[in-house]
User: What shape does this take?
Amino acid sequence: MTALELRGVGRQFGALRAVDDVDLTVAAGTRHGLIGPNGAGKSTLFKLIAGTLRVSAGSVLLAGRDVTGLRESQRARLGISQTLQHSSLFLPLSVQQNVLLAAQRRHGNPGSLWPRRQAAARDRMGELLAAVGLSTRRSAPAGDLSHGERRQLEIAVALACEPSLLLLDEPAAGMSPAEGDRLVELVQALPREVTVLIVEHDLDVVFRVAESVTVLHLGQVLLTGSPSQVRESASVREAYLGTADRAELFVQGGPG
Ligand SMILES: Nc1ncnc2c1ncn2[C@@H]1O[C@H](COP(=O)(O)OP(=O)(O)OP(=O)(O)O)[C@@H](O)[C@H]1O
Ligand SMILES: [Mg+2]
Assistant: This one.
C-alpha cells in the first residue's frame, strides 16, 4: 500500500521553481526522511502535500486517491496532519487545552451530555502528553513552555488528529540532545498505522528515524535511498558541501 504519491509536483513563486517536478512514493507505515540544504523546497513540498499551498504542476495522491483538488481541511479529514516549521500553538491556552482542541477539530466537541466520550477524550489526551513527555506540564500555558517542549506539544497536537500521514517539519529544531533523543524514541514508537514524513536539519535524527530518505536540492529530487545510500552519495555530499551545511555528516562512515 502506498500512503503518499507525488507525480511531477511543482510549485513556482514568480520565476522561482521552489519545487520542481518532484516524484515521490512513500509506502504505508514507513518513516521517510526529507533533507536538503536551506531553501531546497522542503517546507514548500510539505505545504503542497497538506494543501496549504496549491501545486503549479503535477498531482498529489493520498492512499491512491487524487487529492490535488482538495482543500487543506478536506485533506486533514482524510488523515494528513502536519507540524509547521513555525509554531501554530495557542500560547495563552494550557498544554492540555491545545491537545483537546485538536481532538475536537477531528471528532467534534464531546459535549456535557456525553460524559463517557469526554472521559475517553481526556484519557487519550493523557496518553498523548505522556508519549511526548509533557505529563507534568499539562496545566501550564503553552506560552510558558521551553522551545523544545513546544515542539513536543506540537507533535501531541498533530497526533490528536489521529493522522494516517504525519508531516513533521524540523521537529528537533531548538531541542537539546536529550529532547532530540526523546523525539527519536517517540517517532520510533508510533504505531505503523501512521506513516511519517520528517524534514530535519539534524541529520543524525533523520538517519536514526527514517527507513528511506529523499534529498531535495534546488527544488528537485537529487536521490531517494536508504540512509546509508544517502550518506555515501557523492552528489548529496556535494550539495551539502556547497552550502557548508552539515557536510561533516557525509564524511565517510558518518557518526554512529
Ligand atoms: N510564499 C513564498 N513566496 C515566495 N517564495 C517562497 C515562498 N515560500 C518559499 N519561498 C522560496 O522557495 C524556496 C524554498 O523554500 P522552502 O521554505 O520550501 O525551503 P526549505 O527547504 O524548507 O528551507 P529551510 O531548510 O531553510 O527551511 C526558497 O527560495 C524560498 O525563499
Ligand atoms: Mg523549511
